[in-house]
């Protein structure tokens, strides 16, 4: 797991440093800084994920590859969301009048 911290978004709540002090430190004004390269060891993953999830402004992001073992396949007969979009072509169907 690899994380990044966007200091321009940070509002200084300090929850990240509370949950994962090995990865986040706070400056004199309470704004977070990322300690190290952002690579998270497996043993610290839970604490860092708690910090990521508790950040009220979403300044912490997880970077890396998330690959499913099986590719997503569309089920037969599944509704296509695009079929239900409201457009000028089907405005009479959804009650829009000009």
Automatic annotation (TrEMBL):
Pfam families: Fer4_15 (PF13459). InterPro entries: Fe-S_cluster_ET. The keyword Transport applies. Transmembrane segments: none annotated. Gene3D superfamilies: 3.30.70.20. Keywords: 3Fe-4S, Electron transport, Iron, Iron-sulfur, Metal-binding, Transport. Residues 65-98 are annotated as: Disordered. Its cofactor is [3Fe-4S] cluster. It comes from the Bacteria. This is Ferredoxin. It comes from Mycobacterium paraterrae.
């Amino acid at each position: 797991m690899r994380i990044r911290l966007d200091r321009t978004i940070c509002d200084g709540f300090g929850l990240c440093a509370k949950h994962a002090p090995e990865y986040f430190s706070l400056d004199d004004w309470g704004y977070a800084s990322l300690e190290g390269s952002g690579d998270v060891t497996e043993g610290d993953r839970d604490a860092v994920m708690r910090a990521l999830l508790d950040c009220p402004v979403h300044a912490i992001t997880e970077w890396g590859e998330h690959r499913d073992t099986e590719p997503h396949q569309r089920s037969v007969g599944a509704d296509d969301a695009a079929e239900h979009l409201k457009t000028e072509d089907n405005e009479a169907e959804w009650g829009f009048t000009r």
